[in-house]
Amino acid sequence: MPDKSSGDRLSGMHAAVKSDLAEAVNAEEFVPSCAGAPGVASVETPLAALSPSSVNLTAPNLGPQSASTALEERGTRTASANKNVRKPRSGSSETNLLTIFLEGDYRERWRAGSDLVARSLRNPASGLPFNVNQYHSLLPLESTSNASATATVYKAISAEDGRPYALRRYLGPMLARSDNVVRAFRNYNAVIHPNIVRLQAAFTTGAFAALDLSRHLAVAGADAAMSENGRRAGGHPSDLELVFVYDMYPTAKTMHEYYLHGDTSILPEEFFWVLALQLVSAVQALHEQYRLCAYGAIGAHHVLVVSPNRLKLNKIGIAAAFDPDDEDILLSKIGEYQRQDWIALSELLLALAARSNPRAVRSGSVRDLQAALETIRTAYSPDVERFLHCLANPSQISSEGWNRLLTMRLWRSYDLALSHGDLMETIAQDASSDGNLFVVGTKLAFVTERTDLAGDPQWSEIGDRYLLKLFRDRVFHDTELDLERVRDELRRLNAGTEERILLESRDGRSRLIVTYADLARFLEAALRELALRLATQNGPG
């Protein structure tokens, strides 16, 4: 452990190097102070949508926007466990319908994420546009009632690939220079790392003009000439706003919400190292592989916890886009910015390690350095303090002591990553298998008891199709809701096994013996015939 003098040097280093950038790392929304002053940078040419395939500066399409329909919630909603439903025989005899395929924690988290992605807000009273460029089904992820907010985040679905993305919209006329936004996008869009949220696109838009106007009128009155965020009350089309598009992690929380708010008991040291190494890996990649810096994206309100034990730097590229300096000046400052990255990371990890001490850590940041150091000396091995000391003194990074500290922990993190990968592969295999059973069950539903073909003499449920209906009754109309039995039956049908089964008519007068292989052939033949019949019925259009 470093002696008292080294602790004093750690304290002195923190005090000496705190620049405006370092002090802002724990702000809920970080934008360099220079960007907030009106007239700092003018936009002579409207900024086009920036994507990996397009960086031309042309105005976006500002066609009429529409908003319709009420709140849509298409996520699965299931009540408490049904006592008549039986799960796979390997577990308890009673379970919720959705718990049979995935381990509980993963299932709950993924279901919550799917529910959020499926929701959208299309109430005209909300003022949200129907679409913004290629993105639709917008849903605010943050409160939009704060008149002093500088940015807000929306969930949106891309019309190009159908995936959800997070749109971070900066309110009011764009204060960043077009060339800086383009440069920041080009630099940070290239960053691909497992511990960094990827920047996917950037564009300007006037789509939110109606929303800004309604919010302004509600707060300031109908006669106001200027809204609080600087947009003209009339929503003038020249007042384009800047939007950054990132990959979305529906159930993610900030590090402040997840680790530094609520339960703040001491983290196990091994867990601390797992988290610390992820952030060190992200910062090193930015510095060494991409010759960039995190540039204010390291802080309790910026780092995302996307799943248990997984951290990702968020909002990369935003501060660079708002920086008013030219590229040559930025390049001359890159070394200092990278140095500040390490210092900001040391502060964040020190707050994480000392989170149990409310006197040392408040609102996710260190307020009493000496109290924080005393806490980690009590709770952790000397290696943690040595590690934080190296971070706070960036000249020591990559030294022999630094490498030894990291190497000792990397093997354990590597083992945990492999174990997690094995678990995910097992879950993926189960989900893939169950997905196949869903397809088989859906095919069976397609061809049995179709009311639209009930009067068609060529589609009578006789012969092969009659056997399929009896099999459907056997699988789904049993007196007990035994999900494991249903699973077994569909698995055998999907595999087309030669096992024989007994099918019984509804009146109990007829009994027929057939194999699963026969039923599989009947099912595929019925589907082909149904597809041809529907194509003929619907015509060439």
From TrEMBL:
Please note every region of biased composition (Polar residues).
57-69
GO molecular function: any one? ATP binding
Q: Which InterPro entries match?
A: Kinase-like_dom_sf, PAN3, Pan3_CK
**GO annotation, cellular component aspect:** P-body; PAN complex
Q: Which UniProt keywords apply?
A: ATP-binding, Coiled coil, Cytoplasm, mRNA processing, Nucleotide-binding
Q: Where in the cell is it found?
A: Cytoplasm
- Broad class of where this protein is predominantly found: cytoplasm
Pinpoint the Pan3 C-terminal knob domain residues.
406-530
Any one biological process term the GO annotation gives: mRNA processing
Region listing for Disordered, in residue ranges: 57-91
Q: Which PANTHER family match?
A: DEADENYLATION COMPLEX SUBUNIT PAN3 (PTHR12272), PAN2-PAN3 DEADENYLATION COMPLEX SUBUNIT PAN3 (PTHR12272:SF11)
- Which named protein is this? PAB-dependent poly(A)-specific ribonuclease subunit 3
Source species, please? Cyanidiococcus yangmingshanensis
